[in-house]
Amino acid sequence: MIIKIRPSDTSFLWGCKRCFWLKYKHGVINESFPAGGLTRNLATVQANQVRDQRIEKLIPSIGCCGEFHSEEKNVASEPIPVNSEHTFFTGGRYDALWEMDDDSVACIDLKSTTAARFDPAAQERKKTKLAETYGWQCNAYAFALKHPASESFAAEAKPEAPRGTFGNMLGGGSRKVSHIGLLFYQIDPLSEDTYKTIRDYAPVAINEKGFIAWVQEAADIIALDEAPEPRMGIGSGGNLIKSGSCEDCLYLERFSMKFGVTEQLPDHGIPPVFGELLG
What we know:
three-stranded mixed sheet, 10 strands, 34% helix
């Protein structure tokens, strides 16, 4: 079986191994928290601001020069070398790409975030946290750019990617990726009458070996016969708690309760109503 790992699933979905397993093992996709209109509008503004901008002007801290190349193009990788009965690859649509003066490329993801306290120490902590949260997502795009899918693999895998994942990059060849990172926008808390954003950049370390190791861990999770435990939080008194720790799992529980179902499938650990949908 050929399995595509979406770059975006390496961050928040991976935060709960049960939700990750449900999606990739059984195709249960939770749409309980769709992006709102404001988020979509911010994304449009961000794309308009970066388009055709030289990278040294947009991100002075990057310390190199490059010309805007493209936005929102699909990329797909060759098979990722992991030990599994399945074949894994990664593919998705990057936000923005720059052609650097040294013939390498910089692949930058655009994000909007909640406001931090705008002092240098707090801002650095926020940048570190963003890089940790989205690090494998950025590295997934870097892997696909460096190791693009061949035409033969694309033909084999395309039924698993019906939205044209392979359409734009075939024939483009391997690209050296020199920079990955997050260009993020925060709403200025000092702006009282209008929405004003502050832009900053969080670099991400390129770590191909680490990304492959992450895919191996993901493959091991998908291979499990039973669902992993939901993400657990810390309750009062330092006790581990499950309920409410993962909003997606809580959503599934409420969905089941709405249909009068309170028990879990013993062999999979998912609500029976979903088991019926999955056949």
